[in-house]
Amino acid sequence: MDLTPFYEFAGEHVAVGIHAVDAKGKTVIYNSKMKEIEGFDFEELVDRSFLEMFRFEQQESTLLKVLQSGTPVLNAKQTYWNRKGQEITTINDTYPIFQNEELIGAIELSRDVTTLEKAVYQPLKKYEEPITFSTITAVSSSMKKVIETAEKAAKAKLPVLLIGESGTGKELIAESIHWAASSSGPFYTLFCHGTDLHLLDQLLLDMPNMTGGTIYCERIDLLSLHLQAHLLQIVEQQAGDSICFIASVGEDPVELIGSGKLLKELYYFFSAMTIPLEPLRKRKEDIFPFVTDYFSRHRMNFGSIVKGLDREVTRLFEDYDWPGNLKELELLLDEITSMLTTQDIVTMDLLPQYFKSKSKSSGRLGPEDFIVSRTKDLLPLEDYLFEAEMYYLQKAMDLYQGNVTKAANALGMSRQNLQYRLRKIKKK
Ligand SMILES: Nc1ncnc2c1ncn2[C@@H]1O[C@H](COP(=O)(O)OP(=O)(O)OP(=O)(O)O)[C@@H](O)[C@H]1O
């Protein structure tokens, strides 16, 4: 009996992301769960082969690494911001695949542990005391405005809708509203990412026992419309009681409603007060005060001597776009401080390699710019070809460890020609 249809069905419906490549690194399997994890839409996937050419992300490189070494890489945890700007934490196992002792490809199995990570890890890690408005870095005028409105919301005790990209501090604001409202009960977070009917029903069962407190529904736009309707029923039943309801969404709610991702009625319920949080790239004044606060907490909690950033790192932080906002900065600082020994100033060599290459390319074209779609303008051909050439030449130089003669030879061009092109890249 041919079992292929069974395996195909299982591959599409299993709750693990699967990405397999052949011996040349070309994708041969990319299942639905992987699309969901990486945030791709179908239309974009058609162009995936193009994308692969330009992607430097860890995801691919683990597969390629395994392809080169022939040995598995297991339990690799990574937190990143996917194509839709959603924060995702996965644990990946990547294996080489052999047939008759010949390496024919590699496969990556990716478990989405975002919700688990938030529920288990974050409460342990953060501020030791309840979050109050004064704990929050708010130097920019837009963050000051956020705090002002949140203070009003705490007094009014009306439902609140927080709007902002992942990592902008929505949960912190929700928690500080809770404490400022001097609510007697607990602060609960309902992580909508990965929530199912069963968990929502559990919430329904638990609620009658709550005599106060706050329920924060994080990213209601990540629930299916069916579950949003269910959530609406739950919150409406309790409305008017002493429970305070706060929710968050990742983008403009009007657009979300327009594109069928947010139930209008659920939006109406929460939008008694709305608080938009700007992405960090639009309020860069908050970057360094946050770093200073982080370091002082680190000195206090771990007795370290870390004081600040050197000039080069400061410039890099200023220029970078921070797609994951303050959360991304915080994770980066966690990584940097874990490597500190006797140094009190953070220098370039303490920055992880992936961050250096990401920040170098920030401002330049990213992989998504190469996707051809009806909703976006095409890139001028010249820019497209320039990026492609730059990518290819840099990869060739890496492969030959910077040896221009050997790289030129492999590329079938003269040494002078390659040097000329490399200079052109540097100037851009
Ligand atoms: N203004 C801020 N001041 C201090 N810390 C901040 C601020 N904004 C974000 N952070 C830090 O970034 C982390 C992420 O913030 P938070 O979880 O509130 O973001 P979020 O907007 O709720 O993200 P998501 O939509 O992914 O849930 C927090 O743990 C906090 O330490």
Describe the structure.
The structure is a single chain. The protein has 428 residues and is α/β, with parallel strands linked by helices. It folds into 4 domains: 4-112, PAS domain (Beta-Lactamase, 2-Layer Sandwich), CATH 3.30.450.20; 117-278, Rossmann fold (3-Layer(aba) Sandwich); 282-361, Helicase, Ruva Protein, domain 3 (Orthogonal Bundle); 380-427, Arc Repressor Mutant, subunit A, CATH 1.10.10. 48% of the residues lie in helices and 17% in strands. It is built from 20 helices and 12 strands. The strands form 3 sheets. It has a 5-stranded antiparallel sheet, sandwiched between helices. A 5-stranded parallel sheet has the order 7-8-9-6-10. It has a two-stranded parallel ribbon with strand order 11-12. Helix 18 crosses helix 19. The radius of gyration is 24 Å and the shape is globular. The N and C termini lie far apart (59 Å). Residues 53-59 have low confidence and may be disordered. Residues 87, 126, 136-138, 164, 166-172, 218-219, 248, 290, 326-327, 330 line the site of adenosine-5'-triphosphate (ATP). InterPro entries: AAA_lid_NorR (IPR058031), Homeodomain-like_sf (IPR009057), HTH_Fis (IPR002197), P-loop_NTPase (IPR027417), PAS (IPR000014), PAS-like_dom_sf (IPR035965), PAS_4 (IPR013656), Sigma_54_int (IPR002078). Pfam families: AAA_lid_14 (PF25601), HTH_8 (PF02954), PAS_4 (PF08448), Sigma54_activ_2 (PF14532). One of its GO terms (molecular function) is ATP binding.
